[in-house]
């Protein structure tokens, strides 16, 4: 009997910031997170909402202090590029499922007028029934667990918002009719379901054959790094890919506090000033220049929200000089 090689124990370290990963196909969001966490030797990590294993694209991974702001990305609008093959419906709404029905796609199904009408029909607030093959919970179990057991459960329709939708008729390599979709949507939107519903509205059915997230909350795929690129880097290069925690605070109003007010704010004490009301504020200290946390302003009062700890601030200043470079003079600005 051969002996197993001893497991190499990874020496963890504090890492604070956001890494924008271009998640590959076939990998779950959690598996991608664990791989990057291991490559960075990070102590604490979390992602900003799951991206389907059958989808690729933008997956912001949060480390250390940045995990305190991950909910902001979870709630942010997302943009996807997808392809729906027309004339074929499947059990899962994508190419992995068994074929349920085939329908001949005729030119009259796909006139410019019909495409324009369907595009308008699915833009704005819409109602969606979550798919059985999803991670949504029912009585403590994910829907996909019921689906694998051959059990269909009743699901309530949910309201989501399609902020923008562009439909383009294309042909696959096998000369099959398909729709290319560019979708900007609210959280909770199922693009597979959207593809199925659009196919049904056209009268031919459809299922997704391609899905890629190209933006989440203003963080675009062009800024992402792949797992293969990370694996080929040395440790210093990997750490250089980690953006400061304030990268998640796009659109927040910036407030800078002096030393005494910064210390009190970090203790959870409200500060008074001549600031206009603002619902989302990123608060920085001036000496040293560092992110302290987030809050909001009402009636001239700066109310603390999620705060960094003094240890986190110290570790960021010592290990990630790029955070200081983002702080500059001025009291009310957009990040």
Largest sheet: 9 strands, mixed
Say how many strands there are.
19
How many distinct helices? 10
What percent of residues are in strands?
A: 25-35%
Mean pLDDT level: 88
Task: List the uncertain runs.
Answer: 321-335
Category from helices, strands and their pairing: alpha+beta
Please, what is the oligomeric state?
Answer: single chain
What is the element string, with H for helices and E for strands?
Answer: EHEEHEEEHEEEHEEHEEHHEHEEEEHHE
Radius of gyration: 23 Å
Distance between the termini: 60 Å
- Shape field: globular
- Helix fraction bin: 10-25%
What does this structure look like?
Strands 1, 2, 3, 4, 7, 10, 11, 12 and 13 form a nine-stranded mixed beta sheet that branches. Strand 10 (158-171) and strand 11 form a beta hairpin. By secondary structure, the protein is of the alpha+beta class. It has helices spanning 29-40, 70-75, 112-121, 143-148, 191-201, 227-232, 235-240, 259-266, 310-319, 322-326, and strands at residues 17-23, 45-47, 56-63, 78-86, 88-90, 99-102, 124-128, 137-138, 141-142, 158-171, 177-185, 206-216, 219-220, 253-257, 271-272, 278-286, 289-298, 301-307, 333-334. The protein is 24% helix and 34% strand. The protein has ten helices and 19 strands.
Topology:
Blueprint (H helix, E strand, L loop, with lengths): L16 E7 L5 H12 L4 E3 L8 E8 L6 H6 L2 E9 L1 E3 L8 E4 L9 H10 L2 E5 L8 E2 L2 E2 H6 L9 E14 L5 E9 L5 H11 L4 E11 L2 E2 L6 H6 L2 H6 L12 E5 L1 H8 L4 E2 L5 E9 L2 E10 L2 E7 L2 H10 L2 H5 L6 E2 L1
Parallel strand pairs: 3-12, 14-16
Antiparallel strand pairs: 1-3, 2-3, 4-11, 4-12, 5-6, 7-10, 8-9, 10-11, 12-13, 14-19, 15-18, 16-17, 17-18
């Amino acid at each position: 009997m051969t002996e197993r090689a001893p497991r190499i124990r990874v020496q963890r370290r504090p890492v604070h910031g956001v890494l924008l990963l271009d998640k590959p196909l076939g990998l779950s969001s959690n598996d991608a997170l664990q791989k990057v966490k291991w490559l960075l030797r990070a102590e604490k990590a979390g992602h900003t909402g799951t991206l389907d294993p059958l989808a690729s694209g933008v997956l912001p991974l949060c480390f250390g202090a940045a995990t305190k702001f991950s909910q902001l990305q979870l709630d942010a609008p997302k943009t996807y590029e997808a392809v729906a093959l027309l004339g074929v419906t499947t059990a899962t709404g994508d190419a992995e499922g068994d074929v349920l029905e085939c329908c001949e796609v005729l030119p009259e199904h796909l006139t410019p007028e019909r495409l324009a009408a369907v595009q308008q029909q699915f833009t704005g607030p819409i109602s969606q029934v979550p798919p059985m093959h999803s991670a949504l919970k029912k009585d403590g179990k994910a829907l996909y667990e019921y689906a694998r057991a051959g059990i269909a459960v009743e699901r309530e329709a949910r309201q989501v918002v399609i902020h923008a939708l562009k439909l383009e008729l294309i042909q696959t390599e096998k000369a099959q009719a398909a729709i290319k979709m560019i979708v900007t949507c609210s959280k909770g939107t199922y693009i597979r379901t959207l593809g199925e519903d659009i196919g049904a509205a056209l009268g031919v059915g459809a299922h997704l054959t391609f899905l890629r997230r190209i933006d989440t909350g203003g963080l675009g795929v062009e800024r992402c790094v792949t797992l293969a690129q990370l694996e080929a880097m040395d440790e210093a290069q990997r750490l250089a890919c980690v953006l400061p925690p304030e990268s998640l605070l796009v659109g927040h109003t910036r407030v800078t506090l002096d030393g005494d007010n910064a210390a009190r704010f970090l203790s959870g004490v409200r500060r008074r000033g001549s600031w206009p009301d603002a619902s989302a504020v990123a608060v920085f200290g001036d000496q040293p220049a560092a992110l302290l946390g987030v809050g909001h302003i009402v009636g001239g009062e700066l109310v603390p929200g999620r705060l960094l700890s003094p240890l986190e601030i110290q570790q960021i200043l010592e290990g990630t000089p790029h955070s200081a470079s983002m702080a500059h003079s001025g009291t009310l600005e957009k990040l």
